[in-house]
Design a protein that fits this description.
The structure is a single chain. The chain is an alpha+beta fold. The protein is 44% helix and 36% strand. It has a four-stranded antiparallel sheet with strand order 1-2-3-4. About 6% of the residues have low confidence.
C-alpha cells in the first residue's frame, strides 16, 4: 500500500512540475511577444529612444540600429505590424522565437511592402527581456 501511495505521490508531483513548466513557457512566450509589440509600437511612432529600449544595450546590433533609425524615420513612410509570432524555446541565457513582420509603405511612395521572416534572439537586461539579434530567413515582397 505504501508503494502505491509513494507512486501516486511521485506521479502527482511530476504532473505539477510539468504544469508549472508549461505555465513558465507560456509566460516567457508572452513576455517575448510583448517585447516585439513594444518595439513595433515605438518604431511605428518614429520614436528612436522607445525603439532602442527594446534592444539589449550590449547587442552587437545596437550601435548600427541606433545610427540607422533616424534615417529610416525621416526617409521612409512605412508601417510595420506583427504578422506571426511563434515561441521556439530557451536555454539558461537566451530565448528564441520565429517572428514575421509585415511592412507596408504609403501609396505613391517608393517603398515596396514586404514580409520579413526572422529568427529573433532575446536576452535579459536588468530583469527585462530585450532583442539581442535576429537572423533573416526570407523576405517576401507584397503589394
Amino acid at each position: 500500500m505504501r508503494q502505491i501511495a509513494r507512486g501516486l505521490g511521485l506521479l502527482l508531483f511530476s504532473m505539477v512540475a510539468v504544469a508549472t513548466g508549461v505555465e513558465a513557457e507560456e509566460e516567457l512566450s508572452a513576455a517575448l511577444r510583448q517585447v516585439v509589440e513594444n518595439n513595433l509600437a515605438a518604431y511605428n511612432s518614429k520614436d528612436v529612444a522607445g525603439t532602442m529600449r527594446s534592444i539589449h544595450t550590449k547587442s552587437p546590433d545596437y550601435p548600427a540600429m541606433q545610427l540607422a533609425l533616424p534615417g529610416q524615420f525621416s526617409d521612409l513612410d512605412i508601417r510595420t505590424e506583427l504578422a506571426n509570432f511563434q515561441y521556439i524555446g530557451h536555454d539558461d541565457e537566451f530565448a528564441v522565437a520565429r517572428v514575421k513582420l509585415k511592412t507596408v509603405g504609403q501609396p505613391g511612395k517608393p517603398f515596396a511592402g514586404n514580409v520579413i521572416d526572422t529568427i529573433a534572439v532575446f536576452y535579459p537586461e536588468e530583469g527585462e527581456w530585450k532583442y539581442w539579434s535576429n537572423l533573416v530567413l526570407g523576405v517576401e515582397l507584397v503589394q
